User: Fold this.
Amino acid sequence: DTGVSQDPRHKITKRGQNVTFRCDPISEHNRLYWYRQTLGQGPEFLTYFQNEAQLEKSRLLSDRFSAERPKGSFSTLEIQRTEQGDSAMYLCASSLDVSGANVLTFGAGSRLTVL
Amino acid sequence: KQEVTQIPAALSVPEGENLVLNCSFTDSAIYNLQWFRQDPGKGLTSLLLIQSSQREQTSGRLNASLDKSSGRSTLYIAASQPGDSATYLCAVPFNTNAGKSTFGDGTTLTVKP
Assistant:
């Protein structure tokens, strides 16, 4: 297992375009999280899945954002009609739901630049 | 609402020094606390996780302590090396879901040879 993989690593797009990021978690992990991080700030929680169910979404996740995790494996995060304020690093993390030991494993992130 | 603060925002030390990074949180009813390392342009690497019932955790040259009553955690790095240069972040889970966490903004450490 190569850890959590994210693709693409860097995406440059024009305002108004749609973008999609993919995350492949560690195979035995049942929980998957998306975070967003801007320069100089800590990551902010966006949403998480337990298996294929999306259990919670942050208020940061506007209706232009949608995330899926079909079959409880990889996940996609789509941003429609991108805005310059969407420019950030989008981080995916996974964990195994073991009580008291939900150690997060993060991917390298997908950096979005909206021109 | 839980708030997590890390002071200082940046720290520069000569190689070999022992140092302490600080993390404070406003709601002491935490489930656990996790320390991460982030290299520039990269994702986060978990360093240590301290359960709410624990006082400290150690891994190699790293020691993390937790004082829930005062809302503080410290990360102690012994005999710092240039390879320790990175941003260190602490995270506190919203509730029992330890993956859904509030992060501090990190302390950027530079260890000079």
Observations:
- The mean pLDDT of chain B is 92.
- The interface with chain A takes residues 4, 31-32, 34, 36, 41-46, 49, 51, 89, 91, 93-94, 96-106 of chain B (CB under 8 Å).
